[in-house]
Amino acid sequence: MHPPSPLIRRALLLVLIAALPVLFFEVSAAQEQAATRVVDLIQVEGIIDPPVADYLTSELRAAQEDGVHAAIVQLDTPGGLEVSMRSIVQDILDSEVPVIVWVAPRGARAASAGTFITYSANLAFMAEATELGAATPVNLGGDLPEAIERKATEDAAAFIRSLAAARGRNERRGESAVRSAASIGATEALSINVIDGLASSLRELLERLDERRVEVASGRLVTLETWGQGAPTVTVRFQDLSLIERVLHAVTSPEIALLLLLAGVFGLIFEVYNPGIGLAGILGAGCLLLGFYALSVLPTNWLGVLLVVGAIGLLVIDLHTSGLGVFTVAGIGALVAGSLLLFAGADPALQLSGWAIAAAVVTTLLFFISVMTAAVRVRLR
Description:
Layout: H1 6-36, E1 38-45, H2 50-66, E2 70-76, H3 82-93, E3 99-103, E4 109-111, H4 113-120, E5 123-126, E6 131-133, H5 146-167, H6 171-179, E7 183-185, H7 186-191, E8 197-198, H8 202-209, E9 213-215, E10 221-223, E11 227-228, E12 231-232, E13 235-239, H9 243-251, H10 254-273, H11 279-297, H12 302-319, H13 326-342, H14 354-380
Parallel strand pairs: 1-2, 1-13, 2-3, 3-5, 4-6, 5-8
Antiparallel strand pairs: 6-7, 9-10, 11-12
Helix pairs in contact: 2-3, 2-9, 3-4, 5-6, 10-11, 10-14, 12-13, 12-14, 13-14
């Protein structure tokens, strides 16, 4: 065979030289696309309430508008409100961005409302030493009559079965989380097809997400590309609650709601007995507004609220009679009873702890024994 002529060699060399810029451009474009691929990490911790639901809605909407590759919801919740949970689930189901729920870090849980959120995700992962379950309807609302509770159980069971069917998860185990309040650990959840994998770190999660295919709301299939050559191929944007969302989320804690209610009443009472520039009244009114916002959001038993306010009234009466005697004892009893009733029958995450009730009693006694007794003496001079 004769070697190619010099003319042919020169032609091949020219073709190769001409092709190099095109090849370089395509490689650079691929590298740039990989470098600019973004994954949002949306952190959710604590009770599932309206501020958290609004936060997730806005973050998922922003993720779609920005064209991010995927959204990871890092979840650690003891439960919360059914209406907020259903809002979050709907947003996840309607998302055009793949949504991964990751129960993390170690020691975290996705209980009650968190179970439904986990089931609704395109992909679900859990860190080691985490748990999932306990999703009975009584844990999603208030104290229910037996007939209504039975209907609520059927509704919740049907809901979690539909989520399991849509995402290819274990329907029977989801139903047992509703009917029997069953909880499972991460390893068991993986073995019975409740979740898609285990990941105890973000790096490990990104590695295990790579090349998985998910179907988004429109039916479009998306292949995740998150790992390559031993390193992440995406940029992770960490998202968290804004300052206002943090404040509203904090005040919807049952303990904070009770303390705000008491602080508001204390401020107004002090302003009445010690008129001045109005600072105590302004602070009291502000605390009451925040407290009643929290009570309007939480599954509140309003009889409990009346007992708490009535307890303060009894203590005020005692200031003008025996000076902290029989009415004080009755007031403290009413305060304890009202605190116990305030969120009775709600999700365990929404019930007042013993220390919170004790703190409320001690704070009330200190306020009336020290501050209000002195204020009354000054007024009577």
